[in-house]
Amino acid sequence: MIRGMTDTAEQGTGRDAERSAQEPLRDRRAAARRRARRTLSRAKWGNTIRERLTYLTEATAGMPGLDETADVYGNGIVTDLEERVAALLGTEAAAFFPTGTMAQQVALRCWAARTGDPTVALHALSHPEVHERHAFSQVSGLRPVRVGHGPRLPTAAEIREFAEPFGTLMLELPLRDAGFVLPAWEELTEVVEAARERDAVVHFDGARLWECTEHFGRSLEEIAALADTVYVSFYKSLDGFGGAALAGPRTLIEEAKTWRHRYGGTVFQQFPTVLSALVGLDRELPRLPEYVRHARVVAAALREGFAAAGVPWARVHPEVPHTHEFRVWLPYEPEAAAEAAVRQGEETSVMLFGNAWEAAGPGLAFTEVGIRAAGLDWTADDVRAAVRDFVDRLPDRA
């Protein structure tokens, strides 16, 4: 069973109940992750407020422009970030938004007005369909339709054969809820061409676009050039405090800024978030290809480790990660896998799996693994040893 293919409302209700039941375990996991001597997946957003403030202060020491007046309603340093993103993506302009949900709603409603068609074609596992409580239809009056089948992006054939017209095709790169998967470059270009044949515009949900260059073998500018507009996030891969940017043609971005104000997204001062985004672009963006390459080493070691430990069925998906993030699937209830992961951290100060485990079907659980700076210290032997130790804590191995 692939998570995200069921009705979104029912899924959300079940997930909320599951999370409430797991709160004590979540607190233990957070405490174990903070105290652990080594953690394979460690993102800075899990740190304490003091640690986050210290990080920002130290990282921005010596940064030019700190003696300038702080931003007010999107000027100053916010404009600097927008110009930098536009330069990185090769677009005419970019606009900063407090959230990606808002940025994408604004982008798609602007395109709907220009094309005269409020229909947005997107995969059933796309972020707006799974995680945004029907925001497109409830807030922006857009009409999402699902295109494509299975845990992968839509194909060119599926776009060409889709039974009804649509004004915009939205592609999430990578498709997170399918396992952070990407198409081949040739497949992506064919999908975009198929949308153009139908007189549709193309929007990239590029929340994690920053780490796609290694898989595609193309620059950010080349990838973004395929789409009419692109959204990028500053916290998912860059360790920022939050925030997003929408990049594209100057006239559309100016219109988007008007809608940003109407949506309540023109915040009085945003310099802490913007500074953290600039730090992420300086520090994390150049390292993402290295993270992707090491994620492939870790993924192979995880597969080998579970096979050697005799786990009857275990999967790493994709087998060769497309980005620095991937999923691990195990034949256990999520509570059992989560308890083993937390106990390993508590008892050994080494945490192999620091993220939550979720149900993927009866007796089947998955977690997400992301390789960042802390994960680079883990050799394949380290990973295999940690897998053995983790498996020893699963319930039927006691």
From TrEMBL:
It comes from the Bacteria. InterPro entries: ArAA_b-elim_lyase/Thr_aldolase, PyrdxlP-dep_Trfase, PyrdxlP-dep_Trfase_major, PyrdxlP-dep_Trfase_small. GO terms for biological process: glycine biosynthetic process; L-threonine catabolic process. Pfam families: Beta_elim_lyase (PF01212). GO terms for molecular function: L-allo-threonine aldolase activity. Keywords: Pyridoxal phosphate. Its cofactor is pyridoxal 5'-phosphate. Residues 13-30 have a biased composition (Basic and acidic residues). Residues 1-39 are annotated as: Disordered. The keyword Transmembrane helix does not apply. Belongs to the threonine aldolase family. This is Threonine aldolase. It comes from Streptomyces actinomycinicus. The lineage of its organism: Bacteria, Bacillati, Actinomycetota, Actinomycetes, Kitasatosporales.
